[in-house]
Amino acid sequence: MSSISADDAGLLPRGRVALLPGAVEVRTSSRVHITLIDMNGSTGRRDGSVGFAVADPGLRLVLTRGGPPRCDGAADPAEADRITAAVRHAATALGVPDTVRVRLHTSVPAHSGLGSGTQLRLAVLRGLAELTGRRLADRELAALSGRGGTSGIGVHAFTRGGFLVDGGHRTRDKDAFAPSRFAEGVPVPPLVYARTPPEHWGIVLALPEGVRGLEGTAERDFMSAHTPLPLPAVRAVAHTVLMGLLPALEEGDLAAFGECLTRLQDIGWKRAHWERPELRPWRPLVDLMCAQGAAGGGLSSTGPLVYAVYDRSACDGAELAGRIRAAAGRAGLPLASLITTTFGGPAATVLPEE
């Protein structure tokens, strides 16, 4: 991620890679996770999620048959290890050899709030299936991935793209609150709403410097300590989503849509995250982004990514990013990266030309 507009950088659409026989390319968006809806569970369902696919940063990799699992193009050994682990998981799930080489062209930053782990696992799984002559239906792909045990936004962003709401899990299918990696075997929640936002709606992604999102046991412990949420807080989130966010999107009302995103930061599950000591100083960044021209925004997933939406037809993305970075600097909120981008579509699979 860099301080430029993804559109200006020519990243959309991305250029074509010349593929040799026995290779397959998979491209995915990343995702912003707006909020979990029902962290109370007393009505017979739990979780439920709201989020959307983001065009950039995106994952782009090429898988080629042959040799032991290997990754070329990774930024560091940790990234290479994540990719080879995804290959081994996919090979086990499909019951095929893991003799695959992966060439990474672009990647999604890990542990930043962009859902990199889910996109990587799904991309490698789909690519390896294609290499072995198997075309996976979306439902089968999701089941084999082992993802979606809490939020289905990452899985649905991969298969559908756009703005998404899932309906969570029946409590008989998932008997406790737990992050997805601790809930493998739980079915992917049903997609209850999907919409492609207006083309002129843009997104700002700001990554705070020196802050990490929750992962692993830290995320599990946080979820355990903060659930169940009081039912009135859950109802406030559901009301804001159903009677605010979704009608605003249907009517193309960006101002109302952004206002609802910002409102969600102070109720329910998002409020619990903003009260974390390492994140609390960054809450003003949302308001700062709005003061510079964004319509509203919030924290993605467990952070640290902060996002906002804006009108691309009325505001130049690069200029908006510059104003936000300058204002954040004056406020003592240093940013590791800042880009403007667009809503993303479903993952694409590219095969060698005949």
TrEMBL record:
The keyword Transferase applies. InterPro entries: GHMP_kinase_N_dom, RFAP_synthase, Ribosomal_Su5_D2-typ_SF, Ribsml_uS5_D2-typ_fold_subgr. Pfam families: GHMP_kinases_N. SUPFAM superfamilies: Ribosomal protein S5 domain 2-like. Residues 83-162 form the GHMP kinase N-terminal domain. Gene3D superfamilies: 3.30.230.10. NCBIfam families: beta_RFAP_syn (TIGR00144). This is Beta-ribofuranosylaminobenzene 5'-phosphate synthase.
